[in-house]
Structures are given as C-alpha cells and as structure tokens.
Amino acid sequence: MAVRTAQTDVLIIGWGLSGLVAACEAMDAGRSVTIIDQEPRSNLGGQAWWSFGGLFLIDSPEQRRMGIRDSLELATQDWFGNAGFDRPEDEWPRRWARAYLDFAAGEKRAWLRQRGVGFFPVVGWAERGGSGAIGPGNSVPRFHITWGTGPGIVAPFAAAVEAGAADGRVRILPRHRVTELLVDAGAVTGARGDVLADSSAPRGVSSSRDVAGDFEITAEATIVASGGIGGNHDLVRAAWPERLGTPPQHMLTGVPAYVDGSMHGVSEAAGARLINGDRMWHYVEGIANWDPVWPQHGIRILPGPSSLWLDATGRRLPVPLYPGFDTLGTLAHLRTTGHDHSWFITSLKIVEKEFALSGSEQNPDLTGKDVGLLLKSRLAKGPTGPVQSFLDEGADFIVENDLETLLGQMQRMPGGEALNVDQARQEVLARDREIGNDFTKDAQISMLRSMRSYRGDKLIRTAPPHRLQDPAAGPMIAVKLHVLTRKSLGGIQTDLDGRALGADGQPVPGLYAAGEASGFGGGGVHGYRALEGTFLGGCLFSGRQAGRAAAR
C-alpha cells in the first residue's frame, strides 16, 4: 500500500469544536490548514455537536434581563473555590482560568454573536453548590443555552472550514488515525498513521478500524485537538482517583466511542507532559438511552431541585447533595455506598417541570430553533416529548400510582435487592410531612422554595413544592440512576498560547494542544470541578489561542 504524503502549514488532529476554531483562526491568518480525524466526515464537529450547548458567561445581557447581578469578581471567587488548585503543576491551569474568566466576562459573547450564535433568554442555574460562599458551585445562574444547542455553536465554524475546503485553503481528511507524531531534533514536524477503510457510519455510530493504507503529513505547527478519554472505560478506570472511591463496575457512556484518549500517549511519546489525569467529570444522573447511538449510550437528566435522592439502599443523600447542586460531591458520596446506582423518587408534576435531558438530539425545540415547539413543550402541561419517550420506553423509569407499588417495582429492578423498603418509605413520608408547612428543618425544601424567587427557575425549572404522594401531582415515578462518563479535566500541559510543554516546563517546538486534550487549557483549567457551561467555552477559547499562536 502506497504511503499518502502531504505538507501543510498547520496540521490539526481532531475536528471537534476546538479543532474547528483553531482551523478558522489559522485560515484567517492566511495559513494552509489540514484537519484530520479517524472518523467519517459525518462526524465533523465531534462531541460538541451532541451537546446541550451550554455556555458560561459573566454579567451578560441575558443575566441582567433576568435580574441576575454577576461580576468578574464573583465568578472568579466561584471558579477558584470550585477548582481547588493545590498542585505545583497547577500554575498554568491557574493562568488559564484567569484568562478564560476575562474572556467569559469580556469579548466571548460578542465574538460569538458576530458569528451568528444566539442564546435562549432564560439563563440556567447549574452546579448550585450549597456548601458556603467560597465552596463549590455557581453563586448565580450562568448557564446560557445556545439557540440551536450544540449544532448551533458548531455551525459557524464548520461552515467556515467547509468554505475553506471548497476554495482550497483547508484540506479535510477523514479516516486518518494518528499513531505517531513526527519529531526532528526535538521539534514536532507533523504526524503519521493509518488511513482507515472508508465508512458510511452515521454520526456517532461506531465505525470500523480496518486499515487501508498509511499516511504522513509534515507541518510547521501541529495542534492536538483529539478530545479526552470518556469513551474508553478502561482508561477511565485506570485514571480513577482514590478520593472518588472505587470506580464503578457498571457505567454508561456519555460520549461516542471515538473519544478514546488515543492521542494522549502519542503526544507524551513526542515530549508533551500530561498532568492531572486523575481529575475527571462524570455525572451521577445517567439513564440508559432507550434508542442508543453508540455503545452503552447514556443520557444525563438535567434535574431541578425537587426530586428525593436515595442511594441504592434507600437512604437519602446528605446535605447538600440535592439534584443539580454538586456533581462531584455526589459522585464521591455514592462511591462509598458499595453500589453503582442510586434513585430519584419524584412525581409527574416534578418531572414535567424539572426534567430536561442533556444532548442536542433530546431537545428538538431548542436544536431546531422552533419557537412554536418550544412553547408547546416547555410551557405547556406535561413532559417534553423526549422525556415522555423515556417514561414510556426507558428501562430505568418506573411509574406507579402509589408508594408501596412503586417501592415493590424498584426492588424488582436489577440491583433492586439492595433497597431497604422500610428505609425508603420512611424517607418519603418524612419529606412529605415537612412540605405541608411554611416552616421546615429540611434544607432541600428550604432551598427549592428559595430558588423559586429566581424568575427563570419559577418559569421553567422548579415545580411548586408539593407532597410526592399528592394524587393531584400525578403518578409517582422512580428513576434508576447510573454513573455516566463524560469529561477529562486533565491533559496536555500548555502555556497561554496553547504550546505543549515538556517535562522541563519548556514548549515542545511545533506542538500545540486545545480542547479536552489539553484539559481545556493548561492541562486542567477547571481544577478538580467544573462550574458547567465551561466545556464548550473551554474548547472555543483554547482552540482560538492555539490556532492564533500556531499561525504565527
């Protein structure tokens, strides 16, 4: 088989959001650009295409219209309280955090608006914390949903790259899997690897790894934008930190199989330093997709604050581990229970108001920019269409009219033998007794009442407080929840230009990294925890930095 060879100014490995942004920046600077990816062309846009499209902005017009008073100072307090930077190698992540916060409070929104990106007017409140002013969480709502969700934010950059390909400024090469970075006298000068057999697999569906040939591409600058490890459970378990307990035996997968971490080792072999590999971000509200696209495909419930959260044995989770408050704190707690699942007990009234599903395909109204469908689905009575589909078809959902039947059905589920029915019953009854008074010692009830003072929550995200057993609230519902793999928070250490750094702290000539491959900047801009809405934004910012620097 003949080796395919090529030369380019800037080589970008990975066509997810950070790679597309880097390509646009290098192309705008007049450089020739080649983008390669191991997947078929149908996957242009990578993981970002599948996302809910949430973006972290500070003191935005959308926030001000909703009565939210935010500031760079408050957001910085939240970010650093959340991140918990505590290692010598966190110096560059700290610098990236400050630079990204300046970007989110400054030109980020205008930069996106110039490209035609718009935002849903109601700002969401993710990762609410609950552990004090300098503890984890967002002090105010900052989760801005892109109008068009993930595809809406990918579209302008993908269109620019496609236009560049049409007029010869960009070359897009699918089915190119990198196995080695070329190194000459300590400098990275390109990449070589396998040309995989053509595939017609639709977006997100696993494609073959049959090899049809070889390639070698030389470049003045090479940007690794290949994503993280969330699709590779073996790598996730190998990197799992002791502080989060033992890794689950059973996990769902929140990203396509191609998010395999293969470029981490390849980059390290070329001299790049990998840091903070034990920092990761996985969700605990995962449900098995009734209509899967990739293997072990899971969907995350984006919950409002009202559901009662029980561990596998039926014991209520401790303060402040309520739905939507502290993702990693909840994960760490649940890993101490000896079980891989937990439960929501809730009502139809809560589900129809508070259950949203993460993913562009689970939000056809927002993804399709369909105002009519949005009004029908978000403001009308009843769950959204995708949520109703899970109620009807999802293996993790139980719908019953009374508590005793519900608890019996929970016990019959796989793993349900761990449930102590008496304990679970007591938790539900005790919670319902507290709800009938304006006064309460139940912190979750106090918090959800407080949240309804925010217009956004009262309008579309928080149900009026009520007894779970109230017949007027509809049937009772139990949801079996699983750990859902998602993001790597560590990666290739980079300086603020996106240059990959070696073990000696000096840049590896010719090598750059962006997006999740770089821990979204610096090798870990989030520290130990993410504030949400910061993953796509990290791809945008790190891709921009690397693309501009590589072009220089």
UniProtKB/TrEMBL annotation:
InterPro entries according to UniProt: FAD-dep_OxRdtase_2_FAD-bd, FAD/NAD-bd_sf, KsdD_DH, Succ_DH/fumarate_Rdtase_cat_sf
Signal peptide: none
Tree of life domain: Bacteria
Keyword Flavoprotein: yes
Keywords per UniProt: Flavoprotein, Oxidoreductase
One Pfam family linked to the record: FAD_binding_2
Occurrences of domain FAD-dependent oxidoreductase 2 FAD-binding (ranges): 9-536
NCBIfam families in the cross-refs: PRK12834.1 (NF009472)
Protein name per UniProt: FAD-binding dehydrogenase
Organism (species): Microbacterium suwonense
